[in-house]
Write a structure and sequence with these properties.
It is built from eight helices and nine strands. The chain is α/β, with parallel strands linked by helices and about 250 residues long.
């Protein structure tokens, strides 16, 4: 990690309201993007906010009930791709892994869904449909975006996840649009997808941060953060740290 990344992580940690330390598991190991890069920065931000953070690149081994019981919150930096079984066999989720993950969240573990993770497991099986429900929707099969660009994020609702954050410039980043949204989700922040910038854009205000519950578990979905350069802004890092803290509080 570069010195700049570390400095920014240290800066945002000083802005995050103190919270009880949580035990957090970052789940990675396969992703369409460069999954090895965001996870260490996520860990750095959350560690500086006072949490105890573990990264797993082998969810096939670690997403089991006894191990998941050790954590208060789960952070998804994961998307199953055709490369996974070849490049990192331990990244492949079995049905037992999916069941353990869903059960952990439904019984109260916090869940923070980072960017592309909402596009994992999009088949029509019952388990994958339940994964979609647990994540409060997101990209799934129909999501799309125009070219990466800088855009304005507007906070729409006061909430512990958005405390101290208002309107801010973000990017360059991908602005997800046409996300699956369930009626019970609460949208916390949106961004306008300007069709004048790219004709692929929707011309609508798109949700970028929202919260929901899955059983007893608190869920935060934040679709911002395509790569580490898009994770450098202080507001993004604050949303991350506060989002995980809020999700984890439900497990206390």
């Amino acid at each position: 990690m570069t010195r700049i990344m570390l400095t920014l992580a240290l800066t945002v940690a000083t802005l995050v309201s103190p919270a009880r330390a949580a035990k957090v598991l970052i789940i990675t190991g396969d992703e369409f993007h460069a999954w090895r890069q965001p996870a260490p920065l996520i860990k750095e931000i959350l560690s500086k906010a006072g949490h105890e953070v573990t990264i797993t690149e082998t969810p096939g081994k670690d997403l089991m009930p006894d191990n998941l019981a050790k954590f208060d919150a789960l952070v998804l930096n994961y998307r199953n791709t055709p490369k996974g079984p070849k490049e990192n066999p331990g990244s492949v989720w079995s049905d037992d892994n999916k069941k353990a993950f869903l059960e952990a969240v439904s019984k109260g573990k916090g869940l923070y869904v980072y960017h592309w993770a909402s596009s994992a497991f999009t088949s029509d099986t019952a388990l994958d449909k339940e994964y979609e429900r647990a994540l409060a929707g997101g990209w799934r099969k129909q999501g799309n975006h125009g070219k990466a660009h800088t855009f304005t994020v507007t906070v729409r609702k006061e909430h512990p996840v958005t405390a101290g954050v208002s309107e801010f410039k973000h990017g360059p980043d991908e602005l997800y649009q046409n996300s699956v949204m369930f009626p019970e989700s609460t949208v916390l922040a949106t961004a306008f997808s300007d069709s004048k910038i790219d004709p692929k854009n929707s011309g609508k205000h798109e949700p970028v941060v929202w919260v929901a519950t899955y059983g007893k578990g608190r869920v935060v979905e934040n679709v911002l953060g395509h790569d580490v350069s898009a994770m450098q802004g202080e507001p993004f890092q604050k949303l991350l740290a506060q989002g995980v803290a809020w999700a984890a509080e439900g497990a206390k």
